[in-house]
Q: What sequence folds into this?
């Protein structure tokens, strides 16, 4: 949707508990309404990045990962004393070789979307890993939606496109946030043994406690939906899958 107040007015969004069935229904309605337009947006970005690569503005190393938060993550993300935010349900992480490339990507994105807010990295605490990326939140411009519709031969209205969160990372930052001290699972204080047990018991369900994830890589003008195992490996790189049954999203 074009802004958060529109969604609140339509769905009467409140501070719900994670087990509240009404909250779950509202969230699933929100995601299903905006999932396909979000994918169309991702493909639009893929085309634009490929164009910039073709003229040498960006290197072949530029890529992005996108995700739609799982129901459980979204409803657990804020405590009862804070108002929920809806602009981080759909997220994109742009990855470039250098800070210069990331700046080019930021400037390019400003052609198509308006910044609504920013969230700076939290202060470091020696006893607790911290996430070091700045989060920027956007909503699309009206002319961008026209371009997306024209390029992909669709007819989505403005209120069908979600607000979205963007992180910009160098390759080194992305590696650290996946495998290093700032890894997302460490930052969230995830217990590896519990994750391994959930995987063994087939307790991970796409959309419920596992996000939908999409990837753009060099040479592609369409994003790819990551399968079950690849999504889990992005979330939990320590996970041992060698002896488990394969499964697709």
A:
């Amino acid at each position: 949707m074009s802004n958060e107040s529109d969604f609140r007015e339509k769905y009467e969004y409140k501070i719900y508990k994670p087990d509240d069935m009404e909250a779950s229904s509202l969230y699933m309605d929100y995601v299903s309404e905006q999932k396909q337009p979000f994918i169309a947006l991702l493909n639009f970005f893929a085309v634009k990045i490929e164009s910039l690569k073709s003229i040498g503005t960006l290197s072949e190393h530029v890529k992005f990962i996108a995700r739609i938060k799982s129901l459980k993550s979204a409803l657990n993300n804020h405590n009862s004393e804070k108002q929920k935010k809806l602009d981080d349900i759909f997220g994109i992480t742009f990855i470039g070789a250098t800070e210069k490339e990331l700046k080019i990507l930021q400037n390019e994105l400003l052609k198509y979307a308006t910044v609504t807010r920013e969230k700076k990295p939290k202060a470091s605490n020696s006893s607790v890993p911290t996430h070091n990326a700045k989060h920027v939140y956007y909503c699309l411009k009206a002319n961008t939606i026209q371009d997306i519709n024209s390029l992909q031969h669709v007819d989505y209205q403005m209120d069908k496109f979600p607000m979205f969160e963007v992180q910009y990372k160098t390759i080194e930052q992305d590696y650290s946030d996946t495998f290093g001290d700032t890894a997302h699972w460490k930052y969230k204080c995830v217990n590896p043994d519990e994750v391994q047990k959930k995987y063994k018991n087939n307790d991970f369900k796409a959309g419920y406690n596992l996000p939908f994830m999409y990837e753009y890589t060099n040479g592609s003008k369409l994003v790819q939906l990551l399968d079950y195992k690849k999504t889990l490996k992005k979330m939990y790189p320590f996970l041992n899958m060698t002896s488990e049954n394969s499964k697709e999203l």
About this structure: The CA atoms of residues 229 and 246 lie 7 Å apart. The beta strands are 63-68, 90-96, 113-119, 135-140, 164-170, 212-216, 224-225. Confidence is low (pLDDT under 50) at residues 7-18, 78-83. The first strand starts at residue 63 and ends at 68.
